[in-house]
Amino acid sequence: MTHNILNFEEINQEFINWFCSNGGTISSKIAFKDYSSENAGRGVVAIDNIQPFEVLFNIPHSIVLSEKTSSLKDLIAISEFERLREINSWFPLILCMMYESQKENSLWRPYFNILPREFDTPMFWNEGDLAELEGTGVIDKIGKADAEKQFNEHLLPIIQSNSSIFDLKMHNLELFHCMGSLVMANAFQDKIPKKKIKENEDKEDEEDEEDEKDDVTMMPMADMLNHKTGFNNARLYCDKGLLEMIAIKEIKKDEQIYNTYGELCSADLLRKYGFVDEDNVHDIVELNGQFVVDTISIDEDTKDRKIEMLLEDDLLDDIFVLDTTYEISPELIITAKIMRMDKVQFNKLQKSKKFPDPKMNLDIKQPLIQLFEKRLAMYKTSIKVRK
């Protein structure tokens, strides 16, 4: 046990020394903490009270890992990166990370040492565990087979044709999945707002989108902050070319410091990061459009014509979403009403081209309840959360 603690602290200190020696600064009010007992891994904690707008740390651009800063840019033709970017915007960064992570004298060696090497995302689950996700829609979005296909078709040829740079014993599919998972979980691909913080304001100025940065990069230190829905208390900003993590509200001593990964539902949190929040106001249930019309339709003869009409007017979605507001979208109500029409009613609709009112009524209430019950039955397992 002592060895693990020492190892954790040694890795932390090595990373901090590297970060600061390369121009980064870290507030004396924060520190790394092992949250593995809470199934959260490494995180950042306040070791003193922090006031709003205090800078927690800043990151020099020189240690932001991207295709522009990786030494691989000097070894691989620019056209190769451009071709990869057209296929997938992540691929150039993933290839650079595959290279840098295995390079003994890489600038980012201490950074890779502190990054996770095992992942809890469904990409790495076995078939038995994946079966627990039946009904969630997560399985269809994992994309493992497609990722492997793209690796074999696009990255592997570059690796094979540059044998003096890459070694297939190391730079292989397993490493690709590892680096891809790090990019999914750690890369900053959302826009970084320009620093314009005012007193009593914890949000960026939404009118300054033209001043925002939207490259896909790995940002040492910024990605050490965990996420918990509703607990965001820090935000990354760009100020005169400097990247700064800033407290957006008061943080008390011993509180964990949280960045936000976005307003994500549990399915996306699990798929991208390998965890879920028990209380998540952003949770949703997805209703496949085809499932909706197949379940609610009462007349096969007019079914296809109804679907065509709904599609022409953008009323039938590929996916209908139910969220925690418990409100049913007007599009779903109209779709349900039309699919429940008999031939006479539908013929009148075609002539008048006047769509039903998007308000709930008794005629459509029961069919929708049956639809939701059928959707609920798709979940093969459940968990009761004790409050």
Automatic annotation (TrEMBL):
CDD domains in the record: SET_SETD6
Q: What is this protein called?
A: SET domain-containing protein
Keywords of this entry: Methyltransferase, S-adenosyl-L-methionine, Transferase
For the SET domain, which residue ranges apply?
28-262
Question: Where does the secretion signal sit in this chain?
Answer: none
* Any GO molecular function: protein-lysine N-methyltransferase activity
Q: Which GO terms describe its cellular component?
A: nucleus
Entry keyword annotation includes Ligase: no
Matching entries from InterPro entries are given as: Rubisco_LSMT_subst-bd_sf (IPR036464), SET_dom (IPR001214), SET_dom_sf (IPR046341), SETD3_SETD6_MTase (IPR050600), SETD6_SET (IPR044430)
User: One Pfam match, by short name?
Assistant: SET
- Region labeled Disordered — which residues? 195-215
What species is this protein from? Glomus cerebriforme
Compositional bias of kind Acidic residues:
202-214
Please list the GO biological process terms of this entry: methylation
